[in-house]
Amino acid sequence: MKKLLILGAGTGGTIMANKMRKTLSREKWDITIIDQYKTHYYQPGFLFIPFGIYKAKDVVKPKSDFFPVGVNVIYSPIERIEAEKNQVLLDQGVVLKYDYLIIATGTKTAPEETPGLKGNLWHKSIFDFYTIEGATALAEHFKTWEGGKLVLNIAELPYKCPVAPLEFVFFADAFFTERGLRDKIDITYVTPLPGAFTKPRATKMLGELLDEKNINIIPDFNIAEVNNEEKKIVDYAGIEIPFDCLISIPTNMGDAMIERSGLGDELNFVHTDKHTLQSEKFDNIFIIGDAANVPTSKAGSVVHFMADIMEENLLCAIQGRPFTAHFDGHANCYIETGYGKGTLIDFNYDTEPLAGSFPFPGIGPFGLLKVTRMNHYGKLIFRWIYWHVLLKGKEMPIEAEMQMAGKKL
Amino acid sequence: MATKTFAGVSIEVNDDGYLVNSTDWTKKIAADMAKEEGIEITDTHYEVLNFIRTKIGNGENLTIRGIGKSGIVDIKGFYKLFPGAPLKKATKLAGVAKPTSCI
Ligand SMILES: Cc1cc2nc3c(=O)[nH]c(=O)nc-3n(C[C@H](O)[C@H](O)[C@H](O)COP(=O)(O)OP(=O)(O)OC[C@H]3O[C@@H](n4cnc5c(N)ncnc54)[C@H](O)[C@@H]3O)c2cc1C
Questions:
Q1: Domain total of chain A
Q2: Does residue A199 sit within a domain?
Q3: From the CB of A128, is ligand 1 less than 6 Å away?
Q4: A63 and A158 part of one domain
Q5: A325 domain-assigned
Q6: Which mean pLDDT values do the consecutive 10-residue runs of chain B (103 residues) have?
Q7: Residue A130 above 90 pLDDT?
Q8: CA torsion, points A345, A351, A356, A357, in degrees to nearest 10?
Q9: Is residue A196 a part of any domain in this protein?
Q10: Contact A42, A386 (CB under 8 A)
Q11: In chain B, which residue's Cα lies nearest the Cα of A234?
Q12: Are residues A126 and A240 in the same domain?
């Protein structure tokens, strides 16, 4: 029997387990997936929790609901990959051999990277919403908060779901307006980027939205520390920003297991060929999702597009053929803008987000770089699609490769 | 494409003043550019510039964190050497492309 090992059973690992079990013969291939936890979190739902739109129970399901028949599942921390020996060590000395390995261990927040962030005020006046604990603590805090300076800070690039912090401040504007508190709250968006986003047209459009909603933006800010006593964030150039409530997007890092395995960069993201998704060092290792160091967004939609490419290329590798699929960095993000509306961006490594309609040229139903009610429904429906279509590795009516039809240059 | 004269030699630069051909770079050009930015160039500056040129030459990602881990300066020191927008200034003086952030 040949062995395919999948490390991590989040979005990417689960999709690949489903796809490869369909593609690879059961007589010849043994597939095993490993994760430390039994619960699958719908991470995009974390954004809705602080504003009482979702509760914790709305974003969790057992991981076991999504594994296909015929895949071995192991719940255990992964200690290390020994790529030279084609083996993976779990804790307590368990060794698993593989012919092919898929790394899907994602990224997580590392607040300890910023001095003072995880200090006295952590989950009292300083919150994150990238974890279930942070999102639910913040929901409690917002229930009774009477206002002041609300500061959102992005610690470092890259961070997953690059639009989530923008959505957060748009939601906060609507949430506190509806509660009649908006005039008591000053909202400031503090980012290491030179503007609201990276690519010119999206930056302009999103920057104007911030302005329209009376949200201040402070760009080019690289946080050095949090001063808990005086409640302010300080950057390396010495700029200080006071807060009453700080929302932090802490440094995002790959799992420490990647570092222990000697496969990662400074932030423990795995060195990955951005077009083939193969490891730059080992031919029988492939990387999907947030764990890869490819220069596109770390997002569920990207994971979904990568999965189509990886399925094809993994087969090429197994059958000793040259790679036929080519990942273009395609990302597609719905952005909540508050008041039941949203916008949508679609882009790849080379083409910035453009205006137009999606996914059907001229028809939509979704509008690119436009604020519409339909785009908001797109985001809400995404949760259903995520649980019922995406994780199961089923076909969706969206091409892995970005399309230019329906877009305005 | 514009050109600019450094140390008596005319060199191609883009709209932001970055060298078009990284191979045109010399220490003298870096020193002239530094003067324009109000920076008095030192050996430590050159060490950082060389580090950046090597990283980019190897096709690697350049980040403030990476420079902080270079063993030459920490991040605070990097800000002192190239005040204001250190990564933008340092890449310019190193004769490599302006860093594009991707998220
Ligand atoms: C607040 C928020 C909002 C978001 N909104 C959106 C959105 O609107 N649209 C969108 O497309 N995406 C969104 N995302 C991003 C999306 O959720 C992620 O990009 C996606 O889930 C990444 O999938 P992955 O498989 O790479 O990693 P994950 O799904 O995070 O899975 C990684 C798995 O690996 C396991 N693991 C890691 N290390 C080890 C180890 N050493 N031992 C054992 N197990 C290990 C973990 O337990 C985990 O289960 C959002 C994310 C957040 C946090």
A1: 3
A2: yes
A3: no
A4: no
A5: no
A6: 83 91 94 93 96 90 89 94 90 90 68
A7: yes
A8: -60
A9: yes
A10: yes
A11: B76
A12: yes
B101 and A157: CB-CB below 8 Å? yes
Question: Ligand 1: which atom is nearest the Cα of residue A35?
Answer: 44
Query: Domain boundary at A195, A224, A250, which?
Result: A250
pLDDT single digits (tens) A43-62: 999 999 999 999 999 999 99
Q: Is the CB of A162 under 6 A from ligand 1?
A: no
- Residue identified by tokens 């709209």 is B15
Region of poorest pLDDT, from A263-272, A295-304, A333-342, B80-89: B80-89
Same-domain status, A61 and A127:
no
| DSSP designation for A329 | -
Among the partner residues B64, B85, B102, nearest to A158 by beta-carbon distance: B102
A158 part of contact set with chain B, CB < 8 Å: yes
Instruction: State the pTM of this model.
Output: 0.95
Query: Active-site residues of B: which are they?
Result: 102
Percent of chain A with pLDDT over 90: 93
Which residue of chain A is at minimal alpha-carbon distance from B78? A236
Looking at residue B23, its pLDDT comes to: 93
Per DSSP, the residues of A150-213 read: EEEEE-SS--SSTTHHHHHHHHHHHHHHHTT-GGGEEEEEE-SSSSSSSSHHHHHHHHHHHHHT
* Nearest CB partner across the interface for B102, out of A198, A220, A224: A198
Does residue A177 lie in a domain region? yes
What's chain A's Rg over C-alpha atoms? Answer: 21
Q: Is the minimum distance from the CB of A160 to ligand 1 under 6 angstroms?
A: yes
